[in-house]
Amino acid sequence: MVKSKHRLKRGDIVLIILGEDRGKKGKILSIDKKKDFIIVEGARLAKKHMRPRKQGEQGGIIEKEAPIHISNLKLVCPKCGKSTRVQKSILENKKRVRVCNKCGEFID
Ligand SMILES: [Zn+2]
């Protein structure tokens, strides 16, 4: 079985396929060290109460993205705009690239 773990990168656009944000698309802001959990811009907002830390700073509620497990995300191909599985391919110069299996274009 091919691991799907290392196929997503920061800056990729992903589609959320499970949970309350199903169907939402967003950009990957960060990926945790084990690459299992991903922060997606604008997705799974959790409300946090903030206290003013400095004088004059406003406290209140801020919304912050909560991590989403990688299995709930699917890459959106920047070339054809479809959510896709990616295939890895190695070019002649030994560079690894990801290939969209919908349109066949290189993603990297
Ligand atoms: Zn594509």
In words, what does this structure look like?
- By secondary structure, this protein is mostly beta strands.
- The protein folds into 2 domains: 5-76, SH3 type barrels (Roll); 78-108.
- The chain is 0% helix and 42% strand.
- The protein is built from no helices and 10 strands.
- It has strands spanning 13-16, 25-31, 37-40, 45-50, 60-65, 68-69, 73-76, 83-84, 86-90, 96-100.
- Strand 1 (13-16) and strand 2 (25-31) form a beta hairpin.
- The protein is elongated.
- It starts with 12 loop residues before the first strand and ends in an 8-residue tail after the last strand.
- Mean pLDDT is 87; it is low at 1-5.
- The protein binds zinc ion.
- The site of zinc ion has 9 residues, from loops.
- Residues 77, 79-80, 82, 84, 100, 102-103, 105 line the site of zinc ion.
Care to give the gist of this entry?
With 108 residues, the protein is mostly beta strands. It is built from no helices and ten strands.
Task: Draw up the topology in text.
Blueprint: E1 13-16, E2 25-31, E3 37-40, E4 45-50, E5 60-65, E6 68-69, E7 73-76, E8 83-84, E9 86-90, E10 96-100
Antiparallel strand pairs: 1-2, 1-7, 2-3, 3-6, 4-5, 7-8, 9-10
The structure holds zinc ion.
Order of helices and strands: EEEEEEEEEE
For the biggest sheet, the summary is: 6 strands, antiparallel
CATH class of the largest domain reads Mainly Beta
Radius of gyration: 17 Å
The coarse silhouette is elongated
Structural classification: mainly beta
Query: How much of the residues is beta strand, in percent?
Result: 35-45%
In total, the number of strands is 10
Strand order of the largest sheet: 6-3-2-1-7-8
Supply the number of helical segments.
0
Gap from first CA to last CA: 23 Å
CATH architecture of the largest domain: Roll
Which residues sit in consecutive blocks of at least 5 with pLDDT less than 50?
Answer: 1-5
Helix content: under 10%
- Bound ligand species: zinc ion
What number of domains?
A: 2
Mean pLDDT: 87
